[in-house]
Design brief:
Layout lengths: L6 E11 L14 E2 L3 E4 L2 E2 L3 E6 L2 E7 L4 E7 L4 H8 L2 E2 L5 E2 L9 E9 L4 E10 L18 E7 L2 E3 L2 E3 L1 E5 L5 H5 L16
Antiparallel strand pairs: 1-2, 1-10, 3-7, 4-7, 5-6, 7-12, 8-9, 10-11, 11-12, 11-15, 13-14
Length: 195
């Protein structure tokens, strides 16, 4: 298969909540599909420091503090919001925002299309803020109201490496991993152990 020239679109968004009760960590629960992906805008977080010597930039180091971004969805189901944000659903099915709620971390998974083959992604350690939603009156045309959540993605230790995210593009050698990508949170495998 040849390489993609471009990628586009966003679909197949899944959320997998952290499984704090699992013996082996990190661990996540089974991913849950959340239909209605509109956009995901991760922006890299970190700083670059330059040390000057011999009249030049002698040493440059960059820190990777993960990402912040907005996830926009057509409508995030109440059960997902409740677990994600620590809110509650009352006996009559009303979603109740709890002021001192404890948000739950999760992995964010999804897919983008390519001109040759699709690419799947996972951000391993995510936390969401309360969603913003603009409610407007209906005019001559109907404009859907979407849920927009600010999110933070931080590095997490996996196999003695500080990992932030992974992208898996379908190839001749990884069809099994690619096809089962949304059944569990895919963990990277490394032939060479961390020193």
């Amino acid at each position: 298969m040849s390489q993609n020239k471009v990628t586009f679109g966003l679909s197949r968004v899944h959320i997998a909540f952290v499984d704090e009760a699992a013996t082996d960590q990190p661990a996540w629960e089974t991913p849950v599909a959340v239909p209605g992906a509109v956009r995901w805008t991760p922006e890299a977080q970190g700083e670059s420091s330059t040390f000057y010597a011999d009249n030049t930039s002698y040493f440059v180091i960059t820190s990777n503090n993960g990402y912040t971004g907005e996830l926009e969805m057509a409508n995030v189901p109440d059960a997902i919001k409740a677990e994600m944000l620590g809110w509650e659903i009352d006996d009559n099915g009303m979603l109740v925002e709890i002021a001192d709620a404890k948000p739950k971390k999760f992995a964010l998974m999804g897919e983008v299309q390519g001109d040759k083959r699709n690419r799947r992604f996972v951000y391993y350690d995510c936390q969401a803020d309360r969603p913003a939603k603009e409610l407007t009156t209906k005019g001559e045309s109907v404009e859907p109201n979407t849920d927009v959540m600010n999110m933070s993605v931080t590095p997490i230790e996996i196999d003695n490496r500080m990992v932030v995210k992974g992208d898996l593009e379908l190839s001749e050698t990884n069809a099994t991993a690619f096809n089962s990508f949304f059944t569990t949170v895919y963990l990277p495998t490394f032939a060479v152990p961390t020193p």
